[in-house]
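hiii so my PI (J.) wants the whole complex modelled not just the main chain, which honestly fair. so below is everything: two entries, each one labled with what it is. i double checked the lines twice but i was tired so who knows lol
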Amino acid sequence: MAKGYQAPRGTQDILPPVSGQWHHLEDTFRQVCERYGYQEARTPVFEEAALFARGIGDATDIVSKEMYVFEDRGGRSLSLRPEGTAGIARAFVEHKLAGEKSAWKVFYLISIFRYERPQAGRYRQAHQVGVECFGAGGPDVDAEIIALNMAWYRDLGMKGHELRLNSLGCPACRPGHRQALTSALADVAEELCPTCQGRLDTNPLRVFDCKSPSCGELVANAPAPLDYLCDGCRSHFDALRVLLDGMELPYEIDPRLVRGLDYYTRTAWEVKYAELGAQDALCGGGRYDGLVEQLGGPKTPGIGFAAGIERALVALEKGGITMPETGAGGVMVIGLDEASRQRSVLLAEEIRAHGLRAETDYFERGLKAQMKQADRLGARWAVMLGEEEMASGEATVRDLMSGDQESVPLEGVAGWLGERVVTPAP
RNA sequence: GCGAGCGUCGCCUAGUUGGUUAAGGCGCCAGAUUGUGGAUCUGGAGAUCACGGGUUCAAGUCCCGUCGCUCGCCCCA
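here's the output for the full assembly
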């Protein structure tokens, strides 16, 4: 297709019936969030570019090479959001929502934008659901959010996903680990892959992320953050584990789990789905106790996660999980001639007023074609109006599931249907 | 940014060593007794074979370029 317009690279149209699946994921997520006492927050799609550089870290890939940065007509440097947390944190600070002994609990459903080569499960405009909690720093919150996270997958019927857990330490214990790690890696620097050699200077932690087998071996014995936790971080992590165990949420400690963004502290987790291929991360989360302060707010602990909708859908598909069909059920109101056709439009409107879905034919088709259409729409009932019905004042109502048919006075049809449970035809 | 594969009706695909009207399935439309769906049968509409150029008597089939898609690297959701 060289001619004509196309959706920009890395973007996609989400059309029926697939949009129904999206609704299912989103609705399920909202319900889960409600249960945990989180409320929706909506922040701008674009922010000052500096917010992301500051919050996420300008050495990260996201900021250094993936942001959709642009200058508006007023000369401001703006960026489409590459992730959700920074904007939420900015709103938290801007509206001075911090308070002693108060937690701000919000969730969001957003599009994120990253300029990358599209690939399996990766888009330039991707969609995430996420949750953030500001103001509470204890491991109980960590457990709650992880539980919420897993509850979403559970409610969706997902199977085969794995929770990975780690602790990255805090400003108190990180330097010690970093030093130990750098010196350990310095000895084998020449054996590391080129990119990892570069990481030694910028962010040695990222070496843990490297997928090259050689680096993997070298790093296997390198000091992990977990081994250098200070007392505070250690007891936080232990307490979290006790809670997760108590909730019977299975997880795996992954000492090599590192997050791509700078703001994470202490608890970090990831949910993986092995069969997704190169992009196997379903979601990532963690604690970021320094972020709010970093953005000019009061020292406030925070924690959250973001999960990809596209990847969740693929994982559900691979797992053979069926999602409820939308749009089925309802009534097809059929008119056969000028007069009954007109009446069918009005009757459909009456039926809708009773809370049912009702549709009519737009193309002056014959009875047979309209019945076929009823079937295609998944309608449960067909209401037929023709010369006979108009004369007798009784509509012919057919149950498309059983095939039973009866006459119902025209005035009462809408109510008659409204009293019946409407389920999709098979 | 780098590497590989692919691009034929709305969707999925066939298309022999380049050779006459590009085939099939799904879907769509219409019929198969007068006003009745889901099954079956019959017929029909629908393709400048991504785009541009080249080789050739002749290209969907070969070559080059462009665009797009897909997968992998990188990184992440």
